[in-house]
Amino acid sequence: MNRRTRITLFTPLMACSLALGAAATGWAAAPKAAPVAAPAAAACFVELKAGDATKAIVSGEGFDKAKGKVFLDQTDGAGGGTATVGDDGKFTSGEVPAGKYKAFQNSGATATCLGGQEAQDAINQKLITAERQRGAKEGFTDGKTLAQAGNCDAEPKLNNNQNFHGLVPDNEGKKQAKEAHDQAYTSAFDAALKRYCTD
Q1: Which of 9, 142, 180, 181 is most open to solvent, judged by the fewest CB atoms within 10 Å of its CB?
Q2: Using CA atoms, how far apart are residues 132 and 197, in angstroms rounded to an integer?
Q3: Sign of CA pseudo-dihedral 194, 150, 134, 180
Q4: For 154, what's the count of Cα atoms within 13 Å in the CB-facing half-sphere?
């Protein structure tokens, strides 16, 4: 490689490293802001009405109350409807014809509504994820509190109150959610004791 080629290649690399160094210094000096909870992604579910398989209820979350009503469009028929969004971004429709639906807002969120086993699997997974996160948070908090109080031999005490939202998970989903919570709680609890019970 001749000298001109080396200089030509080296100059942009040097400029990039200087720019990155300045940016990294800026990042390091910037104060850490509290994380902002991301809004829930738009999702919706179709649940057949008990005792009448020709009717359904559509529920959803992750919609914006400020954007007005949610429109329900039956994608496998002529049915449809509207629903009002609550302050929490959730909605529940009145009775609509059973079928497949899409929920949307004008200039807002859109979601293909899940039904049947697909909806049940999504509901189960949502609970499992929520319980795992809850277990990790509560386990670490409880472990830290006990460790800082000098109780370094404490054992985890599990809280098995599950948080149900929307459609109810099935028994297998509840079981998996409890296991996820308990494992996350115990791991986080032990991690907190290890971190704060140092000699």
Answers
A1: 9
A2: 24
A3: positive
A4: 25
